[in-house]
Amino acid sequence: MDISHDDYQVQYDEAASTVRCSGSFRLHGDEYKPVLDLLGHAADAKPAKLTLDVRELQFLNSSGINTLSKFILQVRKHNVSQVVVQGSARFPWQEKSLKNLQRLLPALRLDIV
Amino acid sequence: MAQAFGDFVALMEGEGEYLKIGFHPSSIPLQQRWRNNGLSADFLADYLSTFFPGEDLASSERQSQIKDAVGYIANELLENCMKYSYASKQHLVSIEMFLEPGAITLYTSNGVEPDRVEPFQKFIQRLLSEDIDALYTEQLERNAEDDDGSASGMGFLTMLNDYGVKIAWNFSTPAKPGEEVAVTTMVRMPL
Question: Hey, is the C-beta of A104 within 8 angstroms of any chain B C-beta?
Answer without folding.
Answer: yes
